[in-house]
Design a protein that fits this description.
The chain has 2 domains: about 70 residues, no CATH class; about 280 residues, Alpha-Beta Barrel (TIM Barrel). It has 11 helices and 14 strands. Helix 2 packs across helix 9 and helix 5 crosses helix 7. The radius of gyration is 19 Å and the shape is globular. It binds S-adenosylmethionine, 6-(5-methyl-2-OXO-imidazolidin-4-yl)-hexanoic acid and iron/sulfur cluster (SF4). The site of iron/sulfur cluster has 9 residues, from loops.
Length: about 350
């Protein structure tokens, strides 16, 4: 265990302990193979302290811990597809798909099953191991459209890929149906701190998100949950988001950290761009707080230099979205990413899906 000299003995920046820890509410930590312990009882002040540590210290500690839980030269490659685009009734200020804003996004109803499975097959042939289907819905629909989504999940799952969906709010019953269809993961982001949430979205509350996350967990689906940086939030909001994620029990298996893609027509379009080093800090902090999780460097890579992306990998990011498009916005092309991984001596992670 690496002990932090700059902090009190209560908080070592590795976030690990060599013994089991308990609290009044019961066991708060589970050990990994090496005897390190994953904690769920982080205090916000501890998260702040980690986030603000000198950058070399922060990255060193994140990287040290990364190596205890993951292969340092492996990156999971995931591909997104927008299965239903635009016209969303929610007013998320960052989102080009909200019906509240005039953007260049063309509305598109739910795609056909065969088209989606064909795109997934092409992705699998390029060693993409996780396929994520996103829909601009406030909540997953009922009836025929939901049946079609279930077919898509079955079709992609049959290819041996990890299957993820992000469809908005879910009922417990829908979560069970998705699980039975073969869904690996459900993406549902908390996006920012509870305090800042109301400045970004007014059509739902933080608690709605937490309820869907609970339904996903209850159904036995893994959780993909993260947020967006660069929406005009303060450092304390980034800390607040990371604190929320790190106190979910169990931690989300996947933590996407998005850098805002500023889209013309959305209320956040003219914000100043985020300092990429904030992405590095957030990723390193996520790695320390949730050492066993995949930390995904998600949206915003087009705006990051390859050196900034490299720093994100050093800070513990071990998953990226590949392909020229995210849902509606551009992403670096496959060739560019292959070249980058090759230059860095890194390789795509093999699939764990059965
Ligand atoms: N409607 C569903 C929902 O909101 O959960 C699923 C689709 S939504 C587009 C998925 C996630 O994309 C959002 O939670 C948000 O974190 C992210 N996102 C959307 N627009 C973005 C943008 N302009 N920049 C970065 N991330 C964005
Ligand atoms: C996540 O956290 N980021 C991805 C995925 N989960 C669904 C979506 C990013 C969307 C960026 C804006 C767009 O392309 O529309
Ligand atoms: Fe709708 Fe999701 Fe976009 Fe919000 S982020 S407007 S819920 S598609």
């Amino acid at each position: 265990m690496i002990v932090c000299e700059a902090t009190s003995s209560r908080c070592d920046l590795t976030g690990t302990r060599t013994t089991n820890m308990t609290s009044e509410t019961g066991v708060v930590a589970t050990p990994n193979k090496a005897g390190n312990v994953v904690r769920y009882d982080w205090k916000r002040s501890e998260v702040r302290e980690i986030y603000r540590a000198p950058l070399p210290e922060l990255v060193y500690r994140a990287q040290s811990l990364h190596r205890e839980f993951h292969s340092p030269d492996r990156v999971q490659t995931c591909q997104l597809i927008s299965i239903k685009t635009g016209g969303c009734p929610e007013d998320c200020a960052y989102c080009p798909q909200s019906a509240h804003y005039e953007t260049d996004v063309e509305r598109q109803g739910l795609l056909g099953l065969q088209h989606v499975v064909r795109v997934a097959q092409e992705a699998a042939s390029r060693r993409v191991t996780r396929f994520c289907m996103g829909a601009a819905w406030r909540e997953a629909p009922r009836g025929k459209e939901f049946e079609r989504v279930l077919e898509m999940v079955r079709g992609v799952s049959a290819l041996g890929m990890e299957v993820c969906c992000t469809l908005g709010m879910l009922t417990e019953e829908q979560a069970v149906q998705l699980k039975e269809a073969g869904l690996t993961a459900y993406n549902h982001n908390l996006d920012t701190s509870p305090e800042f949430y109301g400045s970004i979205i007014t059509t739902r509350v933080y608690d709605d998100r937490l309820k869907t996350l609970a339904a996903v967990r209850k159904a036995g689906i893994t959780v993909c949950c993260g947020g967006i940086l660069g929406m005009g939030e303060k450092e304390s909001d980034r800390v607040g988001l990371l604190h929320q994620l790190a106190t979910l029990r169990p931690h989300p298996e996947s933590v996407p950290i998005n850098m805002l893609v500023r889209v013309e027509g959305t209320p956040l379009a003219s914000l100043s761009p985020l300092d990429p080093l904030e992405m590095v800090r957030a990723i390193a902090t996520a790695r320390i707080l949730m050492p066993a999780s995949k930390v995904r460097l998600a949206a915003g890579r087009k705006q990051l230099s390859r050196e900034a992306v490299t720093l994100c990998f050093l800070a513990g990011a071990n998953s990226i979205f590949v392909g020229e498009k995210l849902l509606t916005t551009p992403n670096p092309g496959m060739d560019e990413d292959e070249r980058l991984l090759q230059t860095l001596g890194m390789k795509p992670l093999e699939s764990h899906a059965g």
